[in-house]
Design brief:
Blueprint: E1 2-3, H1 8-12, E2 21-23, E3 42-45, H2 56-69, H3 71-78, E4 87-94, H4 106-115, E5 118-125, H5 128-134
Parallel strand pairs: 4-5
Antiparallel strand pairs: 1-3, 2-3
Helix pairs in contact: 2-4
Length: 141
């Protein structure tokens, strides 16, 4: 979630969830490169699943549990002044198939809807190194 007017420090002071990443408007995008771009907004990310890109079912199970377990905390976050949008983004490995589809079960959809969370499915190309390793071949240099 992010927004120019979002006071991330005030938000974090009233929730018990551990953030994954925090940024403030005006900070440099890369602290090691202070002459670079600055953030135009402030935001926070949280991790709802630690499953890998090729474990979408496990991602869904972990995210559903996270949403159900932290429903009240997430409601505080999504209703906090300055929060414009909260999105749960799934990083999914794109399969080598003619058609690719992902099913979101009702229990997950219900938990996301109750929490006021949007859902995004981000598909990433299959890693050649990972693919080769699964096939028993040595990874590409």
């Amino acid at each position: 979630m992010s927004r120019a007017e979002l006071n991330v420090d005030a938000l974090l002071s009233i929730v018990d969830l551990k953030p994954d990443r925090i940024w403030h408007r005006g900070e440099f995008r890369r602290a090691s490169k202070p002459e670079g771009e600055k953030y135009n907004d402030s935001g926070i990310t949280f991790v709802a699943s630690i499953a890998d890109f090729d474990e979408f079912r496990l991602q869904l199970d972990e995210a559903t549990s996270y949403l159900e377990t932290h429903e009240q905390q997430i409601a505080v976050i999504t209703s906090f002044e300055g929060v414009q949008e909260a999105t749960l983004d799934f990083g999914i490995e794109l399969c080598d198939a003619w058609i690719h589809s992902d099913i979101l079960p009702p229990r997950f959809l219900r938990a996301a809807a109750v929490s006021g969370i949007s859902v995004e499915l981000s598909h990433y190309p299959k890693s050649e190194d990972k693919y080769n390793s699964k096939q028993g071949a040595a990874p590409n240099p």
